[in-house]
Structures are given as C-alpha cells and as structure tokens.
Amino acid sequence: MGGVLRFILGDQLTHDLASLQDCDKDADTLWMCEVREEATYVKHHKKKIAFLFSAMRHFAKELEEKGYNIHYTHYEDKDNAGSFTNEVKRAVDKVKPDKIIVTFPGEYRVLQEMKSWEDSFGIPVEIKEDDRFLSQPEEFEDWKKDYKEARMEYFYRMMRKKHDVLMKGKDPEGGQWNYDSENRKPPKEGLDIPKPYMGQNDDITDKVLRLFADKFDDHFGDLEPFYFAVTRDQALYALDKFIEERLPTFGDYQDAMVEGEPWMYHAHIGFYMNCGLLKPLEIIRKAEASYEAGDAPVNAVEGFIRQILGWREYMRGMYWTRMPEFSQENFLEADRKLPEFFWTGQTKMNCLRQCVLDTKKYAYAHHIQRLMVLGNFALLAGIHPDEINEWFLIVYADAFEWVELPNVSGMSQFADGGVIASKPYISSGTYINKMSDYCKNCSYSVSKKNGDKACPFNYLYWDFLSRHKGKLENNQRLGLVYNNLSKMDEEKLKAIHDDAKRFLSSI
Ligand code: FAD
Ligand code: DLZ
Ligand code: SF4
Fold it and tell me: Is pLDDT above 90 for 32?
C-alpha cells in the first residue's frame, strides 16, 4: 500500500496536530489504538480511562468525517495487539508504509519506544515537534543556562514578552507581573459557586461506559456519574462557561477549599488541554480578551494566565530537560509506603478524607487540595516519591507524566532538592484551617499541638523540620521557622517526636 503511517496517541486529539499536517488523504493511513498497556501500566482511575477512550473515539469519527483514511483499534477488538509498539508492528504489516510520522509524546517512556521503531521496523520514523506547546525543550534548556536558580517567575516573564500576553508595550498590564498576593482569600460562608460543566452523554460515551463498567474493577475511582466533555466543541463550551462565570472570581478564591466543592472557581480544563481538545494559546487569548472587555479583573486574569503560560510550560520544560534522572530523585530520602487511606479515604483527618473522596468521585481535585493537603501530608509523612508519583499519575484525569512528575517530585515533594520549588511546600494545620472549612468537621482539633486529639499536621510539621534540619536549615526561606524550632525546649520537642512516631506507625 505504501504512503505514510501517522500514529496518533490518546493525548494528541488535535485537528491540526503536527503529525497530521501535510497529510495526503488518499495515500496516508492514520492509526489510533486503545491498548491494554497504556490503560494498565499504572492502574488509571476508571473515569480517566473512559474519558480518554470516549474522546479518542469521537476524535477518530471526526477525522473519518473529514475524509481521512483512519484505522481505529478498539479495546475490545480480537486482534488488538495490546501496546503501542505491537500496534505499530501490526500497522506496518498491514499498510506497508514508506515512513512513520508521530508527534513528540508526553512521556519519556513512550519517546524511547518511538525511537526504537526505526530499527525494529526498518522504515524511517519522523518525530515531529509538538507545536501545541508554547515553548520547546531545546529553547527551555537554552533559557535555563542563564540562571543559577531557573525559577518559574523569570520564565513566565520571558513568555509574557515572547507571546505578547497582558503587556502594555514593554510593561506588564496593570503595572505588576504577578498578583499572587491578592489571590489568597479564605473561603467565606455563602459563596455562590457556579455549577461546573456537565455534559450530556451520547451513544459513543454510553457504549464506552457500558463496555468498561467492570473491565477495570481493580482500578481506583468511580466510573459514574460521567460528565466530561469528550469533543472539542463541548470542551470549548466548557471553557467559555468558565471564562464567563468563574474567571472573574478565579483569583480571589484560587487557594480556598470548601467541603463538597472541589470545583470552586477553577477552570477544570486541564484534562481537555492535556489530551489536545483545547490549545493553551486559545485559552490564554480568551482570558486576555475578558480582561480587555472589562469583564474580569487583572488579578484573576493574570493569575489564570500564569498557570498556563508560566507553570504548565515551565513544568514541561523541566520534565524534558531533567529526564530520566528526574524520576529517580529522592533528596529527602523518603521511604514510607503510601497509606491505604489514599485509596479508601478512610481516615479521621477530614481534610485528607475530603480530598481523597473528591478525587475518587471526580478524577479531579484542585491545585491547593493536591499541594497543601495531599502533597503536604505525603511530604511530612515521608512517603517515597515513587509511591506518591504513581498515585498522582493514576488518580487525576489530567495526569500525564510530563506534568505530573514535575508537580509531584518537584513542586510538592522537594525530591529534586529545590530545583523547582525554592522551599518545601509544607504547613501545619493552621494553614488548612485558614484556607478551608475542613477542620470544623474533623475528629482532630486543629488548635491542639500535641496528644491524641491534636491535628497530626501540627506535630508532623515540626517533626519534619527537625528530621531534615541537616538538609534544610540553610535554606534562606526557612530561616524564620528554624529559628522558632531552635527556641523549642527539649520537652516540647520530645512530645512532637513521640506524637509523630505514634501517628506514623499507625498509618
Ligand atoms: P486551574 O486551577 O483552573 O488552572 C488552569 C490551568 O493552568 C490548568 O488546567 C493547568 O493546565 C494549568 N496549571 C495550573 N497549575 C499548574 C501546574 N502547577 N503545573 C502545570 N499546569 C498548571 N496538572 C496537570 O495538568 N496534570 C497533573 O498530573 C498534575 N498533577 C499535580 C500534582 C500535584 C501534587 C500538584 C500540586 C499539582 C498538579 N497539577 C497537575 C497542577 C494543577 O493542580 C492542575 O493543573 C489543576 O489543578 C487542574 O485543574 P484546573 O484545570 O481546574 O486548573
Ligand atoms: C492514558 C492513556 C490510556 C489510559 N490509554 C491510552 C490508549 O489506549 N491509547 C492511547 O493512544 N493513549 C492512551 N493513553 C495516553 C497515553 O498513555 C499517552 O499518549 C502517553 O503516555 C504519552 O503521553
Ligand atoms: Fe486536617 Fe488537621 Fe484540620 Fe483535621 S484538624 S481537617 S487533620 S488540618
């Protein structure tokens, strides 16, 4: 048959994807596949698998309607070869292409596989740059070289200028680069939080939900109710709904947590962006337009844009320029196993229970739930980076290794020794109490520092600082807390260590 084999992955659902450009619809074959290896190499959340499979099936249908010659391997197909490489082999045997074209993947593991195909199959393999991102790994490497500490904030300012986003000539819109200090309002009672996007499932999604109702029984999470957007049109609708209804308040309550309200004023579009249904620049431009029209204040729009133009691109740059070593790092030598309650939610700590249960139900929790409850706890308790990385990769519908690993090992667990975060993101119960309403329904008392009834975050916080004094006390940003620690008397310190030991041996 000949032509080009264009192999498209489940997180590449973008109509102008690099590997689809210059496609000869008569001669070339597109190939997509649902494979066991991708669904089970970690046991992804059931809703995440259903979301991706439904979005992949919709995308394949759209390509077919556009006149492409597309082969789609369904999970249930008898001749499904089970992995990317085996499917490529099957495709090569069937299509006998002159060449294979792919778009750069989202995982180091998959890139290594792709690089092996040329030798395995004896035909050229072209790996196209993923131009959906606004910076590429080579540029990031170049940028990093100029800094002793290559922090996100410098990268973000460079990106604002490069893409002319929220700029007034050479100056930042509003006179400030970053409005984070205005974005830390605690939740107040009676917040009128708009309802999130809830999609109506069509026949394709219904079939996926039926097919997979019991296929992944040993995977975490609730398959239904299922409400995700699974087409670009639906995802665009969800985005517009966010821009209109939530963006104006996004900044104010960005860090706030409310029981039963994981969606808050966040955008809930990470899963759509990460699988390709939405593109970062179109989102940024819509947010910018909302500011220009006077519909959303600068602290909200800047804060939102920073997450996408800054953090998202920065994390990807860090991933690709620091792999594969990044995945092996364990600066604090954490070695504890993940407690069972990360799967069941069965713990008396209400903040953790709520965040795990939200995650189980929705395959979503917002950033501060991930960072300051789940991640904070894992860091204080000394959970091994492999264990906590696997958990985060499994449980969120937006989790792909290029963005999960830098957030978990870098931002949240300080496993890279401070390459991404300038200090560990840790807190006692006081922060959680200030930023949420979780403590009022907790069996523990956030005001108690020691003893059976005391909030475990309170003593784990000081135990962590004391345990890692050798590695952390010279960190300038921890000067004040180490000063406080040095003033604690022996008796107090002993009570902290005893409580931490008792608690940690109980999980
Ligand atoms: P919003 O809060 O509305 O933000 C808008 C967008 O900004 C997000 O959709 C996302 O694309 C981007 N963004 C925000 N923060 C970050 C960040 N730190 N890194 C990269 N992009 C960011 N994000 C993922 O996309 N996948 C992950 O697997 C993931 N794992 C995380 C693990 C931990 C421990 C932490 C602390 C954060 C993680 N994040 C991850 C970042 C962030 O929590 C999610 O992007 C966000 O919660 C997604 O929800 P949203 O779309 O409502 O985001
Ligand atoms: C996450 C995922 C899952 C669960 N299943 C598939 C699949 O069956 N087929 C596919 O093409 N992609 C899947 N994905 C996404 C891939 O894991 C992702 O493309 C790679 O990890 C590279 O980012
Ligand atoms: Fe969490 Fe402590 Fe508050 Fe309980 S008291 S909800 S454990 S912070």
Answer: yes
